[in-house]
Amino acid sequence: MSKLTLKTEGDTHVVVTRHFAAPPEAVYRAHIDPRLIQKWMLGPEGWTMPVCINEAKPGGKIRYEWTNGKGGEFYLTGEFLELEPYSRIVHVERMHLPDPTPDNHVETRFEADGTGTLMTMRMTLPDAQTRAAMLATGMERGMEASYVRLESMI
Amino acid sequence: MELARPFEMTQPAISQHLKVLEDAGLVMSRVEGTKRPRRLAKPGVQAIDQWIAMLRKALERNYDRLDKLLAGMEQEKRGEKR
Known about the structure:
The complex is a heterodimer of chains A (154) and B (82).
Chain A: E1 5-9, E2 13-20, H1 24-32, H2 34-40, E3 48-54, E4 61-67, E5 73-84, E6 88-96, E7 104-113, E8 116-124, H3 128-141, H4 143-152
Antiparallel strand pairs in A: 1-2, 2-8, 3-4, 4-5, 5-6, 6-7, 7-8
Helix pairs in contact in A: 3-4
Chain B: H1 11-23, E1 27-29, E2 38-40, H2 42-81
Antiparallel strand pairs in B: 1-2
């Protein structure tokens, strides 16, 4: 059963929804507590997040560093814009490959859904032209770059 | 010319858009007399599909892990109350 939906919306949005059995308070906490983030925001198997800085306040810094233990590593930086416990988080993030990708603006909402939570994550990517250029770079660098950029979204 | 017809845009503006798409590897063109027929560049379009597919897969793995973590947190909470 796939509980996740992922849709593109217009030129610049990607909207992801996912239901969780836990209540909004717990799902929200798992998105802002660094010790919890390090346990799940890891992407494909084999990757870990040794560094996780997550200052959950407006203007607070975000920095996640991933490694696969085999020389593969990259990091993400960002800033929090708005936080409404336990219903909404707005932040911007960019991947460093090591050159920074254009900013990805992300709004994450947590709504009570039965005894669980419906999470809706709305990403606003750069305009079509910048995105096309990003994709072109990805193709030059091959799968690895796509894979790394993918990580910037999670 | 033909590509510009359905749009309320000038021919140079359309050419500019096509150039962006071509530079990005999403459209390919060739010269045929005075015409420059374009077609979608399969590898470019596939790269987008691939990227979306990988994004979905990574998110699914993340959220499956989060499900387990949340279940553990709930259990701990119940344990504390006891």
